[in-house]
Hints:
- The chain is an alpha+beta fold.
- The protein has one domain: 2,3-Dihydroxybiphenyl 1,2-Dioxygenase, domain 1 (Roll).
- The protein is built from two helices and four strands; from the N terminus they run βαβββα.
- Strands 1-4-3-2 form a four-stranded mixed beta sheet.
- A hairpin with a 5-residue loop joins β3 (33-39) and β4.
Amino acid sequence: MINYRVKNLEKLVEQLKAEGVTILDEMETYSYGKFIHILDPENNKIELWEPVDEEYDKIADGRTK
């Protein structure tokens, strides 16, 4: 599975739905960000993540930027 960090996940999901993208689940919200899973045109699962970096840094040893 591929994970993409995105900005404004709610708006992006609206745009993806309008384009007919398959949304696999409901958006989940945690202190460290929001998540949702979609399928690409080849049916690969993709995770979209709108991070809250300050909170994620508290629970992770390091992160990529």
